[in-house]
Structures are given as structure tokens and as C-alpha cells.
Amino acid sequence: MQSQDSVRADEAMALDPVSVSTGGFMPPPSAGMRHEERAYVVSQRFKDRLLDVICLLVGTMMLYRSVSDSFYPGYIQRQLMAPIFLGGAFGIYLMYRRYRIGFWIFTALNILVGYWFIFVLEDIWYHHVLPHIVFSALFLPFYSDMKPVGGLATLKDRIADVGMKLLERPWPVRLLAEFPLLERWVNRLVIDGAVSRVRSRPHPWSNVYSYVSWRGLTDRTWSARHLPAWTPPDGYQLPDAREVAKLFNRPTGRQTFCKKSTCLFPAFAQYLTDGFIRTSSDAADPHRQRRNTSNHSIDLCQLYGLNDLHARLLRVAPGSPHTRGLLKSQIIDGEEYAPFLFAGDELDPQFKGLDLPVGLDDLHKECEHEDPVIREDARSRRAALFAFGGDRANTVPQTSMINTLLMREHNRIARKLGELESKWDDDRVFETARMIVIVEFIKIVVEDYINHITPLAFKIRADPSVAWTAGWNKPNWITTEFGLLYRWHSLIPDEITWGKTTLPVGRTFFDNRLLIKGGLRGAFEDMSRQPAGALGALNTAESLHRVEVLSIQQGRFCELAPLADYQAYAHIPRPRTFEDISSSPDIVEVLKACYASPDLVEFFPGIFSEDRVKNSPLPQTILRLVAVDAFSQALTNPLLAEHVFNASTFSPYGMQQIEETSTLSDLLRRVLSRKEAATIGYVGMTRHDWQRE
Prior knowledge:
two-stranded antiparallel sheet; single chain; two-stranded antiparallel ribbon; 4% strand
């Protein structure tokens, strides 16, 4: 979290320079100054510290009054004073951050306090009103040292930024927990504020044309885009993508690990995005990198497929009342898994019509390799591929692991619904179980995944009502920027442990044997005890360097605007220097060598060059855009609509299951046997040893 001086960086640099030096001595700030200059510095510092002390004392009084009045016994007029005093404390915090608007908020609420005491509580004016007049007067001598915030839009951003900074601290969060209605209102503000930082859908542009068109506004086989197509200025040559990709090289050759995230975090991120960031894999299509083959929603197509045909191929055929609504499965070593996709060397006929796994052709070639060791290993891996709805769900055992968890949850719910609703036919049991699992997954996206990546101490809740009247509640359409900012290659560790076996990550592709051997519980525990790599520049494995080059080239092919334009769009200050992008000298050196100006740094390399946000695993622009799309994609799902999200849709049992779901660990404990669930180890995206910074 920033110090209180960070909002007045220019003044602080002039008055209180600080240096971290390993080889010399930094003279005190007063060295070389005339007597008058030294006196001014001392005076200004004293004034700053005095304001800090006044803010602390008066702010503490305001918070005390807020808490004490909220519990005032049997006197509603006094209890209503609590949020007013809390607002006064917020105004003081703004002044602590040196914003003039804080003085006006505090003064306005003091006037309201005076009115309330005199005309509502009929109290003696000098008993309570006079002190509040004095409180406001205390801050007047410091008003000229505070900063204006600009227009209404800037004011809104400033207040939002300060509010979010407060929610990074544990004590305001603990205070909010005492007021459930206020906590729910803050939850709404956090979500709405995150989404409202950028333009709401529908976006004017897509990848069809560089200009607005009817086809571009309606043909969702093309990815949308936040900003219009961009071309370099006349006479400017973009640098060689291979030179730019040096940003991702490891200076020491060793991987840096994330202080916050376990390997369950990138596993879930990959699984989530495989459902709707589906860049076309049709090699014959020259525009495939601009296209998207998904349904643009969180629909768990990884499990159920993209359409009804896929779903019916994966369902148990109607017949027995005891198998209504189930997905096909098999039992291996006492555990439930999806059926295998292949029967021997051939595709199982019952699954003809499913989208085949992306990369299967390469695996087929390995199955015919002249080296018998490679050939037999490839055939063994192919035999362990599961029949899943998603063509990317078999790529690594981590995604198979999550799909297996959700398949078991679907069948658990379907079996229970079959018991409770004897009159329901096969389709209704299946559809209801499917809807319940999708909403459970959406809750996990918000309450497990988003809460992991946010720096807030405040726990965001997936409240469907937030979107019901929101201006951003519009049909989903995945953007091309979203597809690129999720290229989180550096999160992937070089080696990963499954059970007692540690393997290079490259040797785990298409290998569900690792999941089957260790079991579902063991898989989640393994991923939760290993740290993920640190996301950002200077941390990609050499074997993935080519992928970073291709990502840079894809950004150019899709004509994405520079990083600075996206920062301005997301209400982040445009970089004036390369050092505004990154504090790393190594990163700045590459940027300066490649780009003539910080305004020309491209989107993809730029977003990974930025510093990581404190208490988050993500850099700032990625964090801002992920939050925008995550909330606006998740909470606008039709299953969460005002007249859909109810017990008549999901059944009372289904609503109970949704209510009791918040994390992947919640689901895992439900699908395991009682004995396994009782002895399960830690399962989570956040490292067990992580401490807030």
C-alpha cells in the first residue's frame, strides 16, 4: 500500500529526497541549502506531521462515535448518526491523503451533525455542535497544501481509489463486518466501480473491420475490441518482435516464484479462460487470430460441450429412473472419472461428433514414432484422454482435474435431484443440475479466484442483484485484448510435482495418468502446496520464448493500440517516462532500446512490463482489465438474471447448494468420501504461508 506522501510525490521529492545506496553516503536534505531554505523545509515538514497527527486524533474520535452510536440502546435517532460519523472519518482520510475534497466532505457532514443534534435530538448546541465547528476549523490552515481532484470524473476516480485503498486495510473490513447492510452496499460499490472504469458493452468495434459496421456489431464469430484498430505513425517502424521478447528472458536463467499464488491459481485461470477465450484453431483461416469460437459466456462448455449435440453425447441415455440427468462416467480405483475418449487406437464411436482435443494430431504422430519408448508413452497418454465437452480440457492434467471435479459435482446433484423430484424427467434433472453447477462455478470465479487476485482485504461476494439494474448489464462478447492479457506463461513453473514424481512441465501435456494415479484429492493438494511462478517480464522459460514472440505478433496482427492508450482508457495515468511503466532497470533498458517513446510501447509487452500491484499477483493494467471483464462476464450470466435466479429455476435444494459454495475446496469436500473429506489437506489458490505486505 502506498504511503500518505505518495499522492504528493512532486512535493515529497523536493522536500524529502530518499536514496537507497550500497556504495556511498546520501547527504541530508538540508546539505547545501541556505538558511531560509532549511527553515522552509523544517516548517513544511512540521506542518505535514502536524496534519497527520490531527487527522489521526480527529479520525479516531469519528470512528469511535460511529461504533458507539451504532450500538446506542433503543435510540434509533442516535444509531442513525453512525454512518454520518463514518463518512466524517472518510473525509478525514481524504485529507490525510492531501485531497481538498476531504475537507468539504468533512465540513458538510459536520453541518449535518449540527442540524441533527439541534433539531432532531434537541441537544444543547455548544455541547456537541461547537466541537464539530472547531474540528473543521482545525483543518483550514492546511487547506492550501491539499490538492484539487479535477472534474467530476476525476473526483469519482479519486474517491474510488481512496475507498479501495481503505479496503486494503484489515481494520475497515472488520468494522464493515459489524454492519451487514453497509457491507453489502460496499460490495456493490466495489463491483460497480471496477466495471465502470471502462466503457460498457456493446463496444463499437470488433475484429471484422477497422471501422464501425453492422457486421462488426452483430457477428460474434469475431472477437470484439475495447479500442479501435491502431496503426503506427507515418515513418515509424515497429521493433523486431524477437528483440521486444527479450523482456521475458530470465537474466539469471532461474525462475522467480510468486509470493502469493499456488499452482492451483494458474490451473484455474487456464480452465476458466479455455471456456470463452477460444481463438480459432482453423489453420486454413487467415484471420483465425481475430476470431473466437466460444459462446462468449461462462457456460462450462469444457464440461458440457458447445452445443446440445455435444451434451447429449456426454449424457447417460434415458432409461433407468436412477440415472436421470447423469453425465457418463467410469470408476477407476474407487474414483469417478469421465469415460475415455479412445477405445484402443480408435476414437470411441459413442463420442463421434465431439470436438477433438486441440493438439491431438501431434499426439497421433508421436503414437507412430520410430522410437518405441516415445511411441508407447504417447499411446499410453492417448488411451488416458477423457471424453470431455471442451477441446482444451485434456491439455494438461490440471484442467482435467477441475473438469473431473465439476463432473462429479454434476452427478452428485443430479442423483439428489432424482431422489427429491420423482416426477421430473431425464431432461429436467440434467438441465437443473447443469444450471446449478454453472452458478456454483460463477461463485467460485468471484469469491475464490477474483478474491485471490485482488489486493483488497475485503472479500467480494457474488451478489447477482448488483447487475440487475446496472448500466453494464449487457450481452457478453469476449474482446481480443482479453485473449492476449491472459497469456500468463511465466506463472507456469518449470517443474511440477504430482504425488512423489517431479517432472518438467513439458512432459505433463496430455497426461491424465498423473491425475488418475494420485486421485482427485491428491491432485488438488499437490497443486495447492506448490508456488506458481511470478507473473511478469524477465520470468518466462526459454522453451516458451517463441510463444511470447507469437503473442507480440498477434497483437500487431489485431492492430492493438499501445499500452498508454489502454491505460488512459482504464483511468490509469499515461506513462510520461519508461520508468513510469516499470521500476526495473533491466526492463526499462529493453523498452528504451525498442521504443522511441513510452507512448509507443505495445499492449502485450507493456502490460507484462509493469510492476506487480502490492498484495496481488498481477500488474496494474492486467488487474484492472481482468476485474472489468471478470465481473461483467460473470454477473451478467442469464442464470443470475432477476427473474431467473430463484428456487423455481434451481429448486430449493439447488439454491442451498449454490449458497453453500464459495471455493473450489467447498466442491472438493462434497464430492469426496466422508473419510477423505475429513482428512483433506490445504486446498487453495493463495499460498498457505502468504502474509499481507
